[in-house]
Write a structure and sequence with these properties.
Oligomer: single chain
Largest sheet: 7 strands, mixed
Distance between the termini: 68 Å
Shape: elongated
Radius of gyration: 29 Å
Helix content: 40-55%
CATH class of the largest domain: Alpha Beta
Strand content: 15-25%
Low-confidence stretches: none
Number of domains: 3
Order of helices and strands: HHHEEHEHEHEEHEHEHEHEEH
CATH topology of the largest domain: D-Maltodextrin-Binding Protein, domain 2
């Protein structure tokens, strides 16, 4: 099909104005010039688009079908034109992947920080577990990933941002059965029968198993919860104990009144939250600016938890 955006614009104007003269005025062209383009479009599409009556212009059945497509094409062209103007004017668009055990706790503050720092920045968020997020990053579906380090692969550049320590979480009764001296409480002392963790695919589960000296071969560990919110409610009801990241601690204890937390003795277990991009991505200012915002928001949350 050899038609042009101009022809579609003229066609849409005639359909709206129902008059060739008024449509020509709207398009800032002469009526003969507009009529020539409409005729060329009709020849391309193989039929007439308008019924030309003495005092009115009506769409033919073909015209009605074409009008819907024409408006979709013109709308997409307008959006592409605006995008090009935004790019030339310094407006930027970023797609960021983030893992589920970080997203609900860090995102509100990060998005607010980005908005305050650069109102021209358009951010798209993709939430995915670590393996899927890294696949999207390698495939170019996202520009950066926010996750627990390390990320695997020499083709990726990772920037550590802040330390997110683990707390022991459970019901008051469960925690009372643990050593009350914080310095005497260590992850390695936890029994497999006490642990409830997220289901497979969450890197938080792997990290929790590592710090507790456990592995997936133990059939005694309950790994069935799909989110930290679900896990918090289960352990608050006394079904076991779990490791709670500082990032999530305040939000989950406020949402689940029966959830209690206890710190481990030194050295406290932790995960490192970091930002990852492809090595092939040019090191532009956006990456460092994004990292600065995330670092500040994350450090503020964990500092509040440590008070």
């Amino acid at each position: 099909m050899n038609f042009t955006l101009r022809q579609l614009q003229y066609f849409n104007a005639v359909a709206e104005q129902r008059n060739f003269g008024r449509a020509a005025q709207v398009c800032h062209v002469s009526q003969p010039a507009l009529s020539v383009q409409i005729k060329a479009l009709e020849e391309t599409l193989g039929g007439t688009l308008f019924e030309r009556q003495a005092r009115d212009i009506l769409l033919t059945p073909l015209g009605r079908d074409v009008l819907d497509y024409a408006r979709q094409v013109l709308g997409a062209a307008d959006r592409l034109d605006q995008f090009a103007k935004d790019q030339s004017g310094g407006h930027r668009s970023l797609s960021i992947g983030i893992i589920p055990t970080i997203a609900p706790y860090l995102l509100p503050g990060v998005l607010a920080g980005l908005r305050a720092a650069d109102v021209s920045l358009k951010v798209q968020i993709r939430e995915a577990r670590t393996e899927r997020l890294l696949s999207m990053l390698r495939a170019g579906e996202v520009d950066a990933g926010l996750l627990a380090l390390p990320a695997v692969g020499p083709e990726l550049f990772e920037l550590p941002l802040f330390e997110d320590r683990f707390l022991l979480a459970g019901s008051a009764v469960r925690l009372q059965s643990m050593p009350q001296d914080p310095e005497a409480l260590h992850p390695l002392d936890l029994q497999a029968t006490q642990l409830m963790l997220l289901d497979d695919g969450h890197c938080l589960t792997d990290q929790a198993l590592e710090v507790c000296g456990q592995d997936r071969s133990s059939g005694l560990i309950n790994m069935g919860a799909s989110s930290l919110a679900t896990l918090s409610r289960l352990v608050a009801e006394g079904f076991g104990l779990t490791l709670m990241p500082e990032l999530a601690a305040r939000a989950e204890t406020e949402a689940v009144p029966g959830l209690k937390l206890q710190r481990f003795g030194a050295p406290q277990p932790f995960r490192t939250i970091g930002l990852v991009r492809r090595m092939s991505t040019s090191a532009e200012d956006w990456f460092d600016s994004l990292a600065d915002v995330i670092r500040q928001v994350g450090e503020d949350i964990v500092a509040e938890t440590r008070k």
